[in-house]
Write a structure and sequence with these properties.
The structure holds two protein chains of two kinds. Chain A is mainly alpha-helical. Chain A is built from ten helices and three strands; from the N terminus they run H-H-E-E-E-H-H-H-H-H-H-H-H. The mean pLDDT of chain B is 88. Classes of the chains: A mainly alpha, B mainly alpha.
Chain lengths: 260, 152
């Protein structure tokens, strides 16, 4: 249990929330240093990588060390990142005592995710829209909408069952390819490739790619590398998932269409 | 050349595409509008440059410049981490289609096309990287644009 009066523990908790919800390393370290400075800690040092935080500092003449790891599989919640950012601004302005800030952080830590049905709907709409952007006809978009729903339902289910990230991505992209192929062969839609692209776009590693670039830019090469590997791995998983379904289909003599 | 009507439809669709990703990444509701605008303007830039130069790599680069600059401006103006706009806005540019076509040509045994598509996907990723890095290197004061100094 954390000591509710320790700015060090407060900074580490803030850092952990930021890191596990999709913030870049630079922001994690800067926010923690800002909090420590606001509560006048005599010394404070922090080193963060993409799956761990190491911090030590001196409070009232006594040296403390804290080390925390987080689970790298946590889904992204940018609302929490924004909330911690806002809180750290208020702390810097001297608006909160340490226990108050702790209470605020606990609230932020338990900010809920959007309701599942809304997430599923959003990914359906997203799949349909992306299908259109990549040159699909309106009919394709409707098909991509349903195929995107299936993918999101599977991802949510996989999260509940704690399926590994690699398997989740391979299976989810095979579902996207299967739905696209199946519905297309049923006579729905004009371009099978556009439908499949629309429904896999929600799996594409945009978050790790962006964060990896920003970590490299800030000189955090280790974290940048970890996230780059994450990006490449997810991209490979998507390619494997889609590829397997198309291969099996073509071996069964089903035409898999010619992309433009 | 695409017509004005087509461009408007693309803008609106890109807006909803970006907002649906904002929902998936739990962006606060009061930022949906702005992350959607970031994404749709980035996409419009991609379309226009792609039409003009016929190169998806240059188009991705130009679009990334625009949308990173917009993200930085919104981040200062809305007092929110830049991540919120950048991650959602970048999604239309991330080469999802490239991954698909690489896998597709690989499977059907067209290795030359698979290599070409794979290289193009990597080039787009590098173009996005360069675009983000260039804009992030600019000094912060450019993005205040007359906003008061206490915003950081």
């Amino acid at each position: 249990m954390e000591n509710e009066n320790s700015p060090l523990e407060l900074a580490v908790l803030a850092g952990r929330i930021l890191l596990s919800n999709g913030a870049e390393i630079f922001r994690v370290q800067e926010t923690m240093e800002r909090i420590a400075a606001s509560y006048h800690m005599e010394t404070f040092h922090v080193y963060a990588i993409s799956n761990g935080i190491f911090a030590c500092g001196t409070e009232n003449g006594v040296a403390h060390t804290a080390e925390i790891r987080h689970v790298p599989l946590a889904p992204v919640h940018l609302g929490r990142v924004a909330a911690v950012n806002q809180l750290s601004r208020e702390i810097a302005q001297g608006k909160h005592t340490v226990p108050e800030a702790f209470a605020q952080l606990r609230k932020i830590e338990s900010l809920p995710f959007t309701a599942n049905w809304f997430q599923v709907l959003a990914s359906g709409v997203g799949s349909g829209c992306f299908c259109y952007l990549f040159g699909g006809s309106p009919f394709d978009c409707v098909v991509a909408f349903f195929s995107g729903l299936m993918v999101c339902l599977f991802v949510l289910l996989a999260g509940k069952k704690h399926l590994s990230k690699i398997m989740t991505n391979i299976l989810a992209s095979s579902i996207a390819a299967f739905c696209g192929l199946f519905l297309f062969r049923m006579g729905l839609g004009h371009n099978m490739d556009r439908i499949i692209i629309g429904s896999i776009i929600q799996l594409v590693p945009g978050v790790p790619l962006t964060n990896s670039i920003r970590d490299f830019f800030n000189g955090d090469y280790i974290s940048g590398t970890i996230r780059l590997i994450d990006t490449l791995l997810i991209a490979a998983c998507i390619a494997i998932g889609v590829g397997c379904v198309l291969k099996i289909a073509s071996m069964m003599g089903i035409a898999v269409g010619v992309p433009v | 050349m695409i017509s004005v009507f087509d461009a408007l439809v693309q803008l609106v669709v890109a807006f909803f595409a970006t907002v649906s990703f904002a929902v998936l990444f739990q962006v606060p509701k009061n930022q949906y509008l702005w992350s959607g605008i970031t994404g749709s303007l980035g996409w419009l830039c991609y379309l226009l440059v792609n039409q003009g130069y016929g190169s998806v790599v240059i188009a991705s680069f130009a679009a990334t410049l625009i949308l990173t600059a917009l993200s930085r401006f919104f981040a200062v103006w809305r007092r929110t981490p830049i991540t919120i706009f950048l991650i959602c806005g970048i999604f239309p540019l991330v080469p999802g289609a490239g991954i698909y076509y690489t896998a597709y040509y690989f499977i059907v045994g067209d290795n030359a096309m698979a290599a070409a598509k794979g290289t193009e996907t990597l080039k787009i990723a590098v173009a996005i990287t360069l675009g983000i890095v260039l804009i992030l290197s600019l000094p912060q004061k450019i993005f205040r644009l007359g906003l008061s100094k206490d915003r950081f």
